[in-house]
Amino acid sequence: MQSRAVLLRRRPVGMPVPDDFELRSFDLGPRAHGFVRVKNRFVSIDPYMRGRMAGRAGYAASFALGETVPGRTIGEVIESDGPLKPGDLVRTLSGWREVFDARPDEIETLDPRGLPPETFLGVAGVSGLSAYAGLTRIAQLKPGETLFVSAASGAVGSVACQLGRIMGARVVGSAGGPAKCAFLREIGVDAVIDYKAAPDLAAALARAAPDGIDVYFDNVGGAHLDAAVGALRPFGRIAICGMISAYNADGPQPGPNLMQLVGRSARIEGFLTANHMDLMERFIGYMAGWIASGAVKYRDTIYDGIENAPRAFIGLFTGENFGKPLIRIA
């Protein structure tokens, strides 16, 4: 059986380009006894991957050159001689490839709980959990507070906005362009900032939240973080989920005046969702109910074919994607 995979050909410098990746075909050969053969149905594309494509030390090991780009997937068992059966849905870390063989302990069976399987890579997966953990455990958002979310139409940000509303907060969201801002209004965001049309982001935030903000959920860094620090109320909290504005930078980036945190008794804390996986089962239960009731809505950008994984990944940094980018494999 033939399978195709996207390999990391070279480490990106600045903005990733298609030549940083290579599409290659493989002959899988016969499946070894005890192994399971899986065909991926959906492959996740995530911003954190950019940092792990770099050759420098970070919170996790760099991706290896010449190897399949790792990442989360939802697949379907097509061959097995064990307890797993053809047709079973599984979650894996198999990455940007079509078909692969794995030991049973390398895959996890998936109970979709009535949800589309691909949601477990987005709104009901780690993307959604990032928003849930960041607001409940890190920022400890309270009813009546004002929440500011950057990249608010994205896979994480859109969930953070909606969870903020469910938790009783007033929500301010920032996104780029009329279509994304219209989506924020559709999901109930109280005040929307089109950062592409705002020459002064701090002034735009002051208009959207004239009394300041209590919590900032950061997906962007840069000017958004500067504006948020300036708008923090006493005892405000900032949860740093990501800083996509700096992911393609080659050196240190300027930051906000953190001395402002002292006078406001405010707190800033970064977090890795991997340290909060104990919340996953509880979160999925909540999310299944929220989606069923219409309390949470989501958008995905679907690219067909594993050959489009580099395009979907680059789209994270160009604004091409809307919500969660996914690769669908027929």
Structure commentary:
With 330 residues, this protein is an alpha/beta fold. It contains nine helices and 15 strands. Helix 7 links the parallel strand 12 and strand 13. The chain is globular.
Rounded Rg: 20 Å
Largest sheet: 7 strands, mixed
Shape: globular
Q: Give the tally of β-strands.
A: 15
**How many individual helices?**
9
Mean pLDDT comes to 96
Order of helices and strands: EEEHEEEEHEHEHEHEHEHEHEHE
Strand residues, percent: 25-35%
How helix-rich are the residues, as a percent range? 25-40%
Q: Tell me the quaternary state.
A: single chain
User: For the terminal residues, how far apart are their CA atoms?
Assistant: 15 Å
Low-confidence stretches: none
Structural class: alpha/beta
Brief account:
With 330 residues, the protein is of the alpha/beta class. It is built from 9 helices and 15 strands.
How are the secondary structure elements laid out?
Layout (H helix, E strand, L loop, with lengths): L1 E7 L12 E7 L8 E9 L3 H6 L19 E7 L9 E4 L6 E4 L5 E2 L16 H13 L7 E4 L7 H10 L3 E6 L2 H9 L4 E4 L6 H8 L4 E6 L3 H10 E9 L18 H5 L3 E4 L9 H14 L6 E5 L4 H10 L5 E5 L2
Parallel strand pairs: 8-9, 8-11, 9-10, 11-12, 12-13, 14-15
Antiparallel strand pairs: 1-2, 3-4, 3-6, 3-15, 4-5, 5-7
Helix pairs in contact: 2-3, 5-6
